[in-house]
Amino acid sequence: MFRSPSTRASAAVLAALAAVPLLAGPAKAQSEDAAGVVEDLHFFVESLDGTETEERSETEVTVTLTSDVLFDVDESDLTAEARDRLASVAEQIRSEGAGGVVTIAGHTDDQAGDSYNQDLSERRAESVRAELAGQLSDVDVSFETVGHGETQPRVPNIVDGQPNDENRGKNRRVEITYDVQQ
Amino acid sequence: MMRAVNVVVAAALAAVPAACDDAGGTGDAGEGTPPPVVESPAPDGASDGTQTNTPAPQPPPEGGVLASRDVQAEGYSLTIDITELKRQGQSATLSFRITNTGGGDSFWSMYETLGAESSDYTVSGVVLVDPVNAQRYLVARSGGEDGPCACSQQTSDIYLYVGDSAEFFATYAAPPPDVTTINVEFPTFGAFTDVPIS
CA end-to-end span of chain B, whole Å? Predict the structure, then answer.
């Protein structure tokens, strides 16, 4: 039985689980993970400076680069560093990609107007596409770009009623998603 | 930042034990796995924390301690033992044990101490850091960024009396083969450097 101080909390958890069958899903996946049968596990690795994050599942990889290492403020032309960064992403796609469609999604923070941000995110996604397409011209992949403006922040732009510079920096980003060989 | 220093726990402990029920009952109802097994050296019937209906999901430690540290938490002395860090295919799994070795006046409540954010009753705030390649490995999750972690959950159910210990695990992407040691960083408990990967 449960340790006495936690009895009520545990009972509440179990009751909630029993009442909502959907919640049993994660439990099942968790048990399978422990047994070594990994089906839908996503792995996350980020650079210590926070400028690059990689999410990897069995079928696809998403590399997220912060806009601050790709572009100057309010610009959509790539910086010199951006070309180096994208060269390594291109190399990843070349070595482990499964072909098909590479999706490039641009995102901004919440500063400036919605339509301005929408346009900026689209132009930045297009700049990344052009660079990757040039570097991967000999690889059988196609590209799709999309701009999300400020509509899909990773983290809140405003924390405790105050604009949060760190979070805004995380939200200004370009995500590159490609299929991996299985 | 992803990690929030836990200031709520101390306040909750200072209050009457009944406050634990409220604090422990929120935020974790959606977690599907049972809490880690609590081991007690002298079971007295009133403190048997082992769940009998479902097995705990962590892999069993295979003996030995890779790294150990004594820390203070809310007046309690705790020992953190890293018992295993094992590479298996594309993943690496960390196993560790927390033991209450003394201090305080009752039991140490884990709550969200090792969560990645507030109200996160898991150990997903524990990360692997490879300082050579400047990479940080976050806990794996089912289905995506917002999915349940591949790590010990329901830490709100962990209460450790003096002498009690509990086992935990967390799974990460496997570092490259040439990385043979790595740092293990805990929220509030500090970093263990150069932990060997088996």
Answer: 31
